[in-house]
Amino acid sequence: MTESPENPNPQNPNPNSPRTDASSLSAFGASRRNVLFGAAAGAAFLSGCTSNESNDGKDAEAGQANVADDKPGKRVTIGFAGPQADHGWLNAINEQAKERAKKYKDVTLEATEGSNDNAQQVGQIETLINKKVDVLVILPADGKALTQVGLKAMRAGIPVVNLDRVFASQQAYRCWIGGDNYGMGLNAGRYIGEKLKDKKNAKVVELAGIDNLELTRERTEGFDDALKNYPNIKKVARQAAEFTVESGQSKMAQLLRAEPKFDALWNHDDDQGVGAERAIKQAGRDDFLMVGGAGSKRVMEAIKADNSVIKATVLYPPTMAASAIDLARALGQSKGVGGLAEFEIPASITLYSAVVTRLNVDEYLPTGFK
């Protein structure tokens, strides 16, 4: 496939293939369709998760690991602890985990209510540890602040699947799975760069997330690095919002007042993008293209309709929670994953930040969150 403005990855001529750099397993070399593993995507990158049967030694004869599959096997109790679902993406994380667990007859899910208070979340996780769950899946409100409770679980012999916001120590988890914040910014910048590469003195603006979060800084760094490949493009303004509708509206209004003319906007988060779009409509502006972030259903539907400034969104798939359940199930049954020569589950799995445009939106629409 030849490069086109719809391909945000100039270094990867096939936009249907996941990134394969050393820092990312990208669903172990699967196709882009399988990168979005999980309940909403309709497929797990793991082959499933649980038979205790040895398949009469056929796997060993073939030189394969004892991998998980869909057959019911040893029962596993998975403790799930995440932050409060006060955001569309976080709510989708919770739903993905719960729905995935329901698919397995051998899984019991013990889920906490979720909290953004570090002390309260620590208490919830300690309760799960005291219940002696087999495996823990934890999306910490603050990875650094909750590292000690991750260490406590691991020392108690409970393997931890660290979801997205990483603990400060690798000793606090057995496996980490999450999104690629730097890659998210990189691909947003590449998409915009390809769209504006022939425009002289092009200008872009950025509506970022919460600035004291490492993920926000990584998204901005990736975006800036991508734009370095397009000398005709200059980022003329940046505002940090708070991943809320209200902050998106107020900060976008400030950007519009400060910059009466620009060609593209990258917004880090589709939820705060609701507010950004309100400000754009109130200002009567439609002279630029907008790229969103995370992959909400609302934004994907707008991309498909092609009747607004929104032309693309860069995924940060909440399906990672469904895959975390797959991993936890496999860990609880001492299984590996299909498609790998290694016997053990990897220590780190980074998802690919695909760009959704009108050309591929139908493929990704089922994964969009509300």
Automatic annotation (TrEMBL):
Taxonomic superkingdom: Bacteria
Has the keyword Methyltransferase been applied to this entry?
A: no
Q: Name one GO cellular component term.
A: cell envelope
Sequence ranges assigned to domain Periplasmic binding protein in this UniProt record: 78-333
> What would be one Pfam family of this protein?
Peripla_BP_4
Q: Which PROSITE patterns match?
A: TAT
**Name of the protein in its database record:** ABC transporter substrate-binding protein
Write out the entry's keywords from A to Z.
Signal
Region feature (Disordered): 1-27, 48-75
User: Family per UniProt?
Assistant: Belongs to the bacterial solute-binding protein 2 family.
List the Gene Ontology MF annotations in alphabetical order: carbohydrate binding
* InterPro entries with a match to the protein in the record: Peripla_BP_I (IPR028082), SBP_2_dom (IPR025997), TAT_signal (IPR006311)
Pro residues bias (residue ranges): 7-16
Write out the annotated subcellular location: Cell envelope
